[in-house]
From TrEMBL:
Protein name listed in UniProt: NADH-quinone oxidoreductase subunit
Transmembrane segments: 6-28, 63-84, 96-115
Coiled coil: none
Job description of the protein: NDH-1 shuttles electrons from NADH, via FMN and iron-sulfur (Fe-S) centers, to quinones in the respiratory chain.
Record-linked InterPro entries: NADH_UbQ/plastoQ_OxRdtase_su3, NDAH_ubi_oxred_su3_sf
Amino acid sequence: MSGYFGSYAVVVVLFLVGVAIFAGGLFVNRMLRPSRPTPEKLTTYECGVDPVGEGWAQSQIRYYVFTYLYVVFAVDAVFLFPWATVFATPGYGMTTLVEMFVFLAFIALGILYAWRKRVLGWT
């Protein structure tokens, strides 16, 4: 295919072929699998322990805050590795050093804010 929309048409066709293969695999799996539901098979399974009570439980919000902080610092680490490789490149030393200190200052402000709001205390 040639022309402006030719490359887009190839991408769309390949996408549709991929979706068809995926859907076909799911359909064939559903047709070939045995289906013998029993009450034991339909119960919720959690680590070999029979479920007791309702399935709803409250969670403390601080667990989500710690998870969010972990994600922030994991992203910080992901940005530090490319910086370390570019820092050694001639001509980029001072520029990358200043950019990294600005980035780390933003991270430090986030930690300071979390500390001032008493989010980092595990009580």
